[in-house]
Design goal:
- By secondary structure, the protein is an alpha/beta fold.
- It is elongated and about 65 Å long.
- Strand 2, helix 7 and strand 3 form a beta-alpha-beta unit.
- The chain has a six-stranded parallel beta sheet with strand order 3-2-1-7-8-9, sandwiched between helices.
- The protein contains eleven helices and nine strands.
- The two termini are 31 Å apart.
- It binds ligand BJW and zinc ion.
- The site of ligand BJW has 35 residues, from loops.
């Protein structure tokens, strides 16, 4: 189906004050970074319980550290794509824009998005598993031991959120408050399967926001969306930005 938004919904979008964007791995797929689920996804290559839980790190710190180190090298080499850049343009169109991302790659910030809330942490930093001291991942990678030791006697781990761990302090509260108060909630490139992040889509829908989903495939949360743009983010997001800009230009006469 060609991309389409009904006029009445477009008006609600274009006149909204607060926009919240929730992104997942799909927005970075066009930058060459793999997604987690589906054919060819990361979880087909490794088991979650071997790499993405605190128990996995306790059992096999070297393997887990090296796996993240390798992924960070890929993320550092990747570039923001037209989807990330379209979100930057949205900042000029709404008085308030908050981008909540489940991604740990830092590509929103590198594209120029200012207000980014990282729900699952970020791989640009390593954090001591004991005393929570942080250091840039690039500095950690220059240390010969995998994972590097901390002065407190602990060891560094990736500064990300694994299964069974709480989101960074205050992040969920801030995200839920923003989802409940926004006029438009745009969800991009997420399968909507990982809680509590996916639950934010329902929070926004129940609070009366216009929910727009950008995903070439149906997600677990598609049912909450008023508008499903079933295209890659790098195509659908620039299209959406242009639609809003056209509406604004028309309304100015
Ligand atoms: C495109 C595209 C293109 C492709 N354009 N789109 C309630 C019910 C049941 C379980 C739970 C619950 N509450 C908590 C849980 C447990 C658990 C959970 O949710 N489990 C479910 C899987 C069942 N959640 C947690 O443990 C969370 N913590 C927590 O809740 O703490 C409290 C608590 C603790 C203990 C018990 C109970 C409560 C923490 C979750 C942490 C998730 N961490 C990971 C790894 C981060 C580090 C790393 O990268 O290695 O985060 S897992 C992984 O999944 C990563 C992602 O951020 C996350 C979401 O994935 P995402 O982004 O949606 O990617 P995909 O691959 O799933 O989807 C990509 C999508 O893109 C697809 O739909 C494609 O179609 C699409 N796409 N190309 C647009 N070009
Ligand atoms: Zn320490």
């Amino acid at each position: 189906m060609p991309l389409h938004i009904e006029d009445a919904l477009l008006e609600r979008i274009a006149t909204a004050e607060r926009l919240v964007v929730l992104t997942g791995a799909g927005i970075s797929a066009e930058s060459g970074l793999g997604t987690f689920r589906g054919a060819g996804g990361l979880w087909e290559k490794v088991r979650i319980e071997d790499f993405a839980t605190p128990e996995a790190f306790a059992r096999r710190p070297t393997e887990v550290w090296r796996w993240y180190a390798e992924r960070w090298r890929g993320m550092r080499a990747a570039e923001p794509n037209p989807g990330h850049r379209a979100i930057v343009r949205l900042q000029a169109l709404f008085p308030s824009v908050l981008v909540m991302t489940q991604n740990i790659d830092g590509l929103h910030q590198r594209a120029g998005t200012k207000n980014v809330l990282e729900l699952h942490g970020g791989l640009r930093c390593a954090r001591c598993a004991s005393c929570s001291r942080r250091m840039p991942m690039d500095d950690a990678l220059a240390i010969a031991t995998d994972p590097p030791p901390c002065a407190c006697g602990g060891i560094y781990r990736p500064d990300v959120v694994w299964f069974g761990e709480l989101l960074p302090e205050g992040a969920l509260e801030r995200a839920a408050a923003a989802a409940a108060a926004c006029g438009v909630f745009l969800t991009v490139g997420t399968s909507g399967t990982v809680m509590p992040a996916a639950g934010l889509i329902g929070v926004a829908a129940q609070a009366g926001a216009v929910v727009i989903e950008v995903n070439p495939e149906p997600s677990a949360m598609s049912g909450f969306a008023h508008i499903n743009l079933d295209e890659a983010a790098g195509i659908a997001l620039p299209w959406l930005v242009e639609k809003i800009e056209q509406w604004r230009n028309r309304s100015r006469g």
